[in-house]
Amino acid sequence: MKLNARVYKKMTGEPFLTQDIDGRVVEFHKMDDSPFLFQYASKGRFAIWASDGSDYKVLIESTYYDAMESFYSEGVNRIWLNFLERISAINKRINMIFIIPTIIFYAVVAFFASAYFQEQIFVVLLVLLGIIVITNSIQNRVIGKRVKEENTKAQDEIRKSDRRS
Questions:
Q1: pLDDT tens for the chain, residues 1 to 165
Q2: Quick one: DSSP state of residue 41?
Q3: In whole angstroms, what is the distance from residue 97 CA to residue 139 CA?
Q4: Which of 36, 66, 78, 150 has the fewest CB atoms within 10 Å of its CB?
Q5: Model pTM?
Q6: Which is it for strands 24-30 and 56-60: parallel, antiparallel or unpaired?
Q7: Could you give the strand order of the β-sheet that contains 24-30, starting from the edge strand earlier in sequence?
């Protein structure tokens, strides 16, 4: 899953830490040395995950990393990587469930409306647009709910692994 692709591309310097987690490379870069410091740190975001779809980079503010270093151990990062991959799969699956039928439905109705209801084509297309907005809203709600559930599972797993340490 591509994640914060613009940030990923701009992180070209040497990482201060590299982890190989189950064949996935996670590089840590200091936010202090990047053009993103003000953009993210001023909003309270001290760590930004980014990915090109296969490898990951974490842009992290130095003092935050020093205080939270154990939170970025390989074990915890393995949990987060698995979480990111699960939500990517969920997102793809739900998008396919909603988008493909919606496009087919829209195309079929638009075709029939243009062929048989030319006087009402504007109204038909307006109704279709409303249906798409409603479908998109439902899709976003379903994805958000599933992501929240997966996030809770990942946090619980991190808590359990922290107790074992």
A1: 788 889 999 888 899 999 999 999 999 999 997 888 889 988 999 999 999 888 999 999 999 999 999 889 999 999 999 999 999 899 889 888 888 888 898 899 889 888 888 888 899 889 999 998 999 999 999 999 999 999 999 999 988 886 665
A2: I
A3: 9
A4: 66
A5: 0.77
A6: parallel
A7: 2-3, 47-52, 56-60, 24-30, 17-21
